[in-house]
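> call design_seq(struct)
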C-alpha cells in the first residue's frame, strides 16, 4: 500500500514521529471532499512540531522543524534538513523514488522495478497532496471560509485510531494546517508558513546539496548490511510497511 508524502516525512523524522498510518479505505463517490482536477505546481514551507504526551508535571516545549514541499508534473519532494524524500515520474508514468541522507552523504535509489518488488502501490495524486485522498474522504466538512481561490475548508474526523483535523486549501490542493493525534497522545502539527508557484530563491534546491553523494541501489540492500545508511533506510521501509522487520547479523 502506498505511503503518502506525509507518512514518508513523519517516518523519516528520526525517533520523533509516530508510526505512519497505512490507510486502506477507498476514495468514495459520496465523500465530502474529493481531490480531482489538475494539480498546479507549487512550493510550500511548513512548520512541523511533534508533541509527545506529557508525563507528570514535566512539560518540554517540542522543537519546531521546517519542511519544504515541492510539486510539479514530474516530481514531488519533501526536504526536511537531514533527510529528503523525492519521487520522480517519467513520460511513461513510471515512478521512482530516492531517499537522501545528508548526514551520511548518501542517496538510496528505489527504481520502478524495486518499488514493484516491495509491493509499493504508487498513487501520484496521494503523493502530490500531502494527505491521501482516501483519508480526506473519511473526514467531515465542519466549515468553509472564503470564496474562489481563497476558499478554506475545515475537515475533521477519525482515520483508523487517529483524530485528524485539516484546514484544506482547494486552490492549492494542499493543507494549510494538519493535525494528527494518535491514541497514545502523540500529536503531529503541520502549518503552512508560505507558498509560491516555485521555490523561493533562498529555499533548498532538490539535488543541489547531494550532487556529489554516493548512490546506493535499494535492490542491493542484501549485500550491503555493513552500510549504516542501509539500516536506516530499511528501518524507514519497515515503518512504512514496505519490508518485514528483521535483525542484522
Amino acid at each position: 500500500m502506498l505511503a503518502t508524502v506525509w507518512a514518508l516525512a513523519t517516518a523519516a523524522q528520526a525517533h520523533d514521529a509516530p508510526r505512519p498510518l497505512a490507510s486502506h479505505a477507498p476514495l468514495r463517490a459520496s465523500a465530502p471532499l474529493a481531490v480531482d482536477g489538475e494539480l498546479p505546481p507549487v512550493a510550500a514551507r511548513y512548520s512541523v512540531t511533534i508533541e509527545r504526551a506529557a508525563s507528570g508535571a514535566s512539560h518540554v516545549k517540542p522543537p519546531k522543524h521546517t519542511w519544504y514541499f515541492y510539486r510539479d508534473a514530474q516530481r514531488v519532494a519533501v526536504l526536511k534538513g537531514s533527510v529528503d524524500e523525492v519521487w520522480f515520474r517519467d513520460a511513461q508514468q513510471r515512478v521512482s523514488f530516492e531517499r537522501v541522507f545528508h548526514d551520511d552523504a548518501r542517496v538510496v535509489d528505489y527504481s520502478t522495478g524495486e518499488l514493484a518488488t516491495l509491493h509499493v502501490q504508487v498513487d501520484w495524486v496521494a503523493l502530490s497532496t500531502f494527505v491521501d485522498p482516501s483519508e480526506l474522504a473519511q473526514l467531515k466538512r465542519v466549515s468553509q471560509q472564503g470564496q474562489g481561490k481563497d476558499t478554506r475548508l475545515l475537515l475533521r474526523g477519525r482515520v483508523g485510531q487517529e483524530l485528524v483535523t485539516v484546514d484544506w486549501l482547494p486552490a492549492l490542493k494542499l493543507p494549510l494546517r494538519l493535525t494528527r493525534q494518535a491514541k497514545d497522545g502523540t500529536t503531529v502539527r503541520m502549518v503552512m508558513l508560505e507558498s509560491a508557484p516555485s521555490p523561493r530563491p533562498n529555499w533548498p534546491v532538490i539535488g543541489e546539496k547531494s550532487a556529489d553523494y554516493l548512490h546506493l541501489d535499494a535492490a542491493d540492500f542484501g549485500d550491503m548490511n555493513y552500510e549504516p545508511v542501509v539500516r536506516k533506510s530499511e528501518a524507514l521501509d519497515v515503518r512504512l510497511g514496505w519490508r518485514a522487520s528483521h535483525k542484522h547479523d
